[in-house]
Design goal:
Number of strands: 18
CATH class of the largest domain: Alpha Beta
CATH topology of the largest domain: Creatine Amidinohydrolase
Distance between the termini: 14 Å
Order of helices and strands: HEHEEHEHEHEHHHEEEEEHHEEEEEEE
Oligomer: single chain
Shape: elongated
Strand content: 15-25%
């Protein structure tokens, strides 16, 4: 069976400039002087700079007038100058500080006097505390509402990257099912998945790969041991890859051998719950309504109620993009209205303590007319990838 991943272009510097203009307009509307971005995926989202966190303050200031200033230690100047201002990363003035100087004072001095500063919600606590000392806590504002509102709605380019990433992972999961053999260790399966992701153009899979056999599938995030696969074990594999920083995250659950009647019954309930969650995703509806649809169905069958077991122990889904888990979430209490461009996982897992767990996870995005699957859900328990359909 041949496979060809959908083509997707990387995010262009023009799109990043458009994102910065949108952020700048929102900063102006809220009366804020600038946004401080740390070495997080929000820095990558706006500027294209992929900078790993350390104990030093690094990042960028996006000003309400649209200017971008990078902030880094003086010894990193040449590195940052070499990776910004190209086809994929935004150019900007680079503010530097020496080791004995305060980076917080440097940032404070770059913000207009008395202006308030929004701060990336994913920065380390020491950054917030340092800025509070330098300019006063009363001038700091949580930047999350601005960032989440913008990053939560994906562009057509972002959706194309997500489509490519998820198509690759679904094919890797299909190949893995055919490769499994009795006695194989979970660690060996993870190595196989990582190699297959790389073969198909993903950025590996070992960084995120959950492989569970038997009753370890009862644990939503898997067991701790390196378990060997046995005949008639339940198999749960939850994995993903990256394409230009955008995540896939897909789960398949099936049996290596003959499923029991009880497992078939629960698997069918899981598949129906996933389908009902998808159907409930409507433009303008609250995110929590998707969780309600899956959870009410399962409660009606005798699971739960709420998060009790046997039943669904966690939210029905999460946002996804540059972070594997992003806001908003498909969970009780999240009243964010669904809008076109939002992307979510759909994974209302069922756990039967001491026996097995079943998670079927696919993702969808919201179009102007409703939800669209990134990947087609499991076809059936005996033919999870629809190869015999």
């Amino acid at each position: 069976m041949t496979f060809s991943a959908p083509v997707a272009a990387p995010i262009s510097v023009e799109e990043r400039h458009a994102r910065i203009r949108t952020l700048a307009a929102r900063l102006q509307a809220d009366g804020l002087g600038a946004m401080l971005l740390g070495p997080t995926n929000s820095l990558r989202y706006y500027t294209g700079l992929d900078w790993h966190p350390s104990e030093r303050l690094t990042g960028a200031l996006v000003h309400a007038d649209g200017r971008v200033q990078y902030v880094c230690p003086r010894f990193e100047l040449d590195k940052i100058a070499g990776v910004t201002g190209n086809d994929y990363a935004v150019a900007g003035e680079i503010l530097t500080w020496e080791e004995e100087e305060s980076p917080y004072a440097l940032v404070a001095g770059a913000v207009a006097p008395d202006a308030r500063l929004a701060v990336d919600d994913q920065v380390a606590t020491f950054v917030w505390l340092g800025m509070a000392r330098a300019m006063g806590a009363e001038r700091l504002v949580d930047g999350a509402p601005l960032i989440v509102a913008q990053r939560g709605v994906k562009s057509a380019t972002e959706i194309a990257l997500l489509i490519r990433a998820k198509a690759i992972t679904l094919e890797v999961l299909r190949r893995t099912r055919h490769w499994l053999q009795e006695g194989v260790l979970t660690s060996e399966v993870k190595r196989f998945i990582d190699a297959e992701h790389r073969k198909l153009g993903g950025e590996g899979g070992s960084w995120f790969c959950l492989v569970s056999f038997g009753d370890d599938t009862c644990l939503p995030h898997g067991g701790e041991g390196d378990r060997a696969l046995k005949k008639n074990d339940v198999v749960l594999i939850d994995t993903g890859t990256l394409v230009d920083g955008y995540h896939s995250d897909i789960t398949r659950t099936y049996v290596f051998g003959e499923p029991s009647d009880e497992f078939r019954r629960v698997w069918d309930h899981e598949k129906k719950a996933q389908a009902l969650a998808f159907e409930a995703a409507r433009i303008g509806a609250e995110c929590q309504s998707v969780d309600v649809a899956a959870r009410d169905y399962l409660t009606g069958l005798g699971y739960g109620p709420d998060y009790r077991l046997p039943g669904l122990p966690h939210r029905t889904g999460h946002g996804v993009g540059l972070d594997i888990h992003e806001a908003p979430n498909l969970v009780r209490g999240d009243t964010t209205p669904l809008q076109a461009g939002m992307c979510f996982s759909n994974e209302p897992m069922l756990v039967i303590p001491g026996q097995f767990g079943v998670r079927l996870e696919d993702h969808f995005y919201m179009s102007e007319t409703g939800p669209v699957w990134f990947t087609q859900p499991s076809h059936s328990l005996d033919d999870p990838f629809g190869e015999n359909a």
